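Exercise 7. Given the components listed, write out the predicted structure of the assembled complex. Treat all entries as one system.
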Amino acid sequence: MINSLFLINPSGEIFLEKHWKSVVSRSVCDYFLEAKEKALEPEDVPPVIHTPHHYLISIYRDKLFFLSVIQTEVPPLFVIEFLHRVAEMIQDYFGECSETVVKDHMVMVYELLEEMLDNGFPLATESNVLKEMIRPPTILRSVVNTLTGTSNVGDTLPTGQLSTIPWRRAGVRYTNNEAYFDVVEEIDAILDQSGTTVFAEIQGVVEACVKLSGMPDLTLSFMNPRLLDDVSFHPCVRYKLWESERVLSFIPPDGNFTLMTYHVNAQNLVAIPVYVKQSISFFECGSDGRLDVTVGPKQTMGKTVEGVMVTVHLPKTILSINLTATQGSYTYDNGTKLLVWDIGKLNPQKLPNLRGSLSLQAGAPKPEENPSLNIDLKIQQLAISGLKVNRLDMFGEKYKPFKGVKYITKAGKFQVRT
Amino acid sequence: MNGHRGFSVLRSEAAGAVRTALVSAENLQLTLKTELSQEEQHLTPHTHTNGGPDETHTKGYCTEVNEDLKEMLESNKESLKLEAMKRVVGLIAKGKNASELFPAVVKNVASKNIELKKLVYVYLVRYAEEQQDLALLSISTFQRALKDPNQLIRASALRVLSSIRVPIIVPIMMLAIKEAASDMSPYVRKTSAHAIQKLYSLDQDQKELLIEVIEKLLKDKSTLVAGSVVMAFEEVCPDRIDLIHKNYRKLCNLLVDVEEWGQVVIISMLTRYARTQFTSPWKEDGVFDEHNERAFYESDEEKTRDETEAKPYMMDPDHRLLLRNTKPLLQSRNTAVVMSVAQLYWHLAPKNEVSIVTKSLVRLLRSHREVQYIVLQNIATMSIQRKGMFEPYMKSFYVRSTDATHIKSLKLEILTSLANEANISTILREFQTYVKSQDKQFAAGTIQAIGRCATNISEVTDTCLNGLVLLLSNRDETVVAESVVVIRKLLQIQPTQHSDIIKHMAKLFDNITVPMARASILWLMGEYCERVPKIAPDVLRKMAKSFTSEEDIVKLQTVNLAAKLYLTNSKQTKLLTQYILNLGKYDQNYDIRDRTRFIRQLIVPNDKNGALSKYAHRILLAPKPASVLESAYKDRDRYQLGTLSHTINTKASGYLELSDWPAVAPDKSVRNVEVIEPGKEWAPSLGKTGKSKPAKSSDDKFYSDSGEEEEEEEGSGSSSSEDGSGSSSSEESGSDAESHVQKNSSQSSEESDKSSSQSEKSSSESDSEKERKTKTPLQKKTVKPTAKDGDSDENGNVAKEANSSSAEESSSDSESDSDTHTDSDSGTEHKKKTKSKAKPKLSGPAFVPEKSHDLLHRMTGKGLSAQYQFPRQPCLYQPTMVSVQISLTNTTDHPLEQIHIGDRSPTGLNIHCFNTIECLEPEASVTVFIGIDFNDSTQAANFQLCTKEDHFSVSIQPAIGELLLPITMTELDFRKEQSKLLGMNESSATITMAAENMTSQPISRPVATVANLGVVPSSQDNVHRFAGKTASSGAVVLVMVELRESSTALITINTEKSVMGSMLLRDLKLALAQA
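Answer.
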């Protein structure tokens, strides 16, 4: 299946290679680097490249390219999904996924990759299993290791590998037993010039941080499960029970994990929390234009909208801008023509406004299209779809866990066309 | 949560820092040369980018570094070796050559330090191929490790041994694989499945032997092995479909429990399998057959063929099993799994079921960019054939300015395919936004898309054309050029009406510089020169002026235009044409020279070629069919969806074709498994008692529940398919079947003559469904011996027991739930539910001859006679009631009307009455059930039995034993309970018994006759224990009969209801003394 993996940084340097079958020369990456040169943005590099002898499947994530070399037919999603798991594993082990982190822990990353695949077929991808085989670095452990000569590598088969619940290891112990759930909802929307909604939907995810001893069996129920239209679960969730009773019943993995992702029923109208009044215009004759953007709260269910940010990709022909913001501050990068207006909290009494003039390069034609605005926002303690967790019950263990649920609404791909 | 994360980041950073500090300190102490290695590390990027001259330089460093590492590896200190190995592996990771160190490294292969050992393994696997002779030194170590008691060590030894690509050791590998394939540990067996592929790629001659191992491993029941062995199967012998037959059902049933990567592989294999073994489910719908590449609404020919095969289509139960078992996987978090289920449904499901995958595929569009790319590609292929599937989700394919280029074009593709008369206006409005996009490539793509919509939907052709004409005045060249090209294609379809568009384009001609667009306009001029007789020659005049500076493609079209004009309007253009032909004759491009020569010969009449020039008009101005604007994904469906081949649109190496459906299904019976091994994890029905694998202890895990349940159904399905009777029950959708079965189980108490197999089935089914918490293998185990002890001589009793026990289980739901938390003495977490349930568990009643009592004599009842008996079944209406069965008989010669229950005393008496019997014919009798809450006393229940005319006072006096319900418990629990009920709660008596009654069976019989108690399995021969609880209050009643010498027996009764205890004791004394 997966023959080799190369990690490549944006400048095209290959800084890690791993082969699970016989060695493939790194010159194979030249095809990829060629494609990368052609693409304007790193995101535009095609994920699947066909070379005379190999197939290259790559992902771009956290400013790194993960490039895998394939020799025979394999579902491309299989490889892509695995590459993302590698990135997630690095993130999970070292706190972030970046070139420096990988370079700092080169050997450990290499050992992990060795454990994850055997002959190119996934062997252990559950982080709980991996962590038993190769323990993640901590201060205490590295000190102990240097002093006593013990190692980070486990010498017995992780219990999870053999059980039907590979995501949880046996013998978990905590002094404080706690289970936290974050219900995070994202609004994807496209608004047109006049502010009417072209398209809007809500995607949600329930992130969990469960630190419970033993083998707890949890049941999470919602007040209004009918809202959920389409769901996908962590493998721990018992699907039959969801089907019949609409509750989430599961033996959780240890630590942080994504319990479920969901899509809210399309029939429900999506409340759009903010409105944007904008006008961007360029004068036909002179090399000048005006920009005027106001953001205000709309349907916020009485909560404050925070972290509002407006991002605009200005046309390439813009020479310079001169704007004033009544609230927050804006930054403008003349190289990428990226204007970012960081507003912060929305105050309904005094609406933030950004206005000023844009000047075009001399002689450049008036831009065809006005740039669209990407909005970012956050509302604490509110799930915009109205989803509510009803209760969480624990069976199987005798202690009383500390439980908590948090709701957050964010803007996903929230775009205003102008 | 974020706080936690932040902290751990800090911690790991600090850890890194401390570690580097420690390491560097160590290095400094040891040798100064390490400094060089650090320097060398800094140089790394440079060497790569500069290449060439620097390389020799680094090599110099390398050797020095290597010397240093060699020293460290050969030292005695473990920590030094480890450090050296880490640096060596670091070199490998960076892609540096560290093969020189091979001798020094291989010595450490037998190290005790597990981390060091692993690093050596890593090294070996990387370099063994290059240093085969030296690698052999390590083999004996692995052979030893293959016998290690630790499964991880066995597995990793096999992993490394099989990864060393040295042909000499093939026999050793073969042996190791064979042995590992029968290892106790499933993990080792999994590793052996991986090793099969490695050995096969090393030496293809081993194929036959390897197939044997695969065959053996395919039979493995561990979910851990399943994915890996199927992978090996696909790689080594994908054509040996016969190996799958016997394992097909098992694989289907295990599927949900297999790890996600294995699922992908198994699903794709099963897709291929199903296409060879089942008949097409599509024909009946009259839907197109995808291999005829015909749109589905023109399938007339197909229909006629269908009629000839008039046989109605009946889906093979195995086919259905596959579809049903893969469906829950659509909810997987792994995108590859979702995609593979989607392609399975696409290729195998009846057409009306395919759309269930839509939602999940649309969900994947929220995932990473790369996932989107692949999924959109597949949707593009699907949407061409079946618009309806994705039309409701049209808006999910709207393009955002932030999408990557290839995502944008795919979305465009899909939107175009989805367009129909109803939604075209919405789509066109959306397209209008896209055309203005700053990404001009995308804008051009949109224009093509508009063109496609215009050809597909004739209603909007004009609108589109006008819109495109407006775009001709766009400032951007790419947009204009694309518009011209698309307009040309559209005009070709209906050229008659559009001469003004052509005129407009001629006007724009001077401003258009993109060659393709200019060429298109010229072609249009030539083709329709008769419609624009004034303009065309003028355009030619302009072209003659600029001919030399045009691009080749424009030149060709100019020659073309000249030739056509010459034929239609030679008066005006003769000279121009000759001029252009002369220019072309001396052009640098041979294509143009050739064309010019050809055209000249064709159109200019001379002596030699008169024959052809007669036809010149017909040759050049023949009506040309409009080119069809088609999707690039039109014929992608020849590849299986979700495959690499589908993505790159060429056959990837190792791609396995999906075969056509067979016209006649091959023998179905090959999938039948003759013997269902008892006591294994998948034994059906009663077999739950024998769950042998501890890891499989997740009776609370839904996946295995469903698995088991499917097995049940599969069992019945297979048998029915054998004897030819339709398998309607397995055809039903899952939930239906279950609810149906549940109903069954609750009715089963009334229908006494249910077949045993069915009741067993229903009980186990309702278990897995509703009572997953209460259900346990243990209970089953205990019920069984009870029955055997009591009634092994009477056939059919067992069945009856199973019947009622299942009814009890389902009726006592609420009660058992509340009990879940009371128990706390659980041992392992897995068994906790099992145990907590074991205590209050109701068991079936022992069989006793039913004794009926007179309720109403026919004389006093004026012809209505009534008898009652205690059926000893838990009351359906309320758990605290005792159920009473009343038979009413009409002995008169006229019908009795409206028989019902009237006033009752004591007034608080809680009776669940039967429904009023409207009419009872003469000589007819009817049996009804009522429930009475006796409140744990033998006080008679008095009530009136009424007919239309009369009221008769009747009373039911229960025997104390009928107020009890049997429960099952273990001996241990019995003792525990008993120890809680001493003193006042205990009553006992010694009686004399006949000697022949000293065996257990005659004892339990009279006891059962007296009281409705359950038998507790006993370890001592002379002690018999019985347990029950009172119906109303649920107080435990324990009876122990201890046989002593000289035919005496001690009866002990423990219950907190001491009155009941003493009354029961009296009854028992009476019964046993008689015996």
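Discussion: Helices of chain A lie at 29-38, 76-94, 99-104, 106-116, 127-133, 139-148, 159-162, 239-245. Chain A touches chain B through 131 residues (CB under 8 Å).
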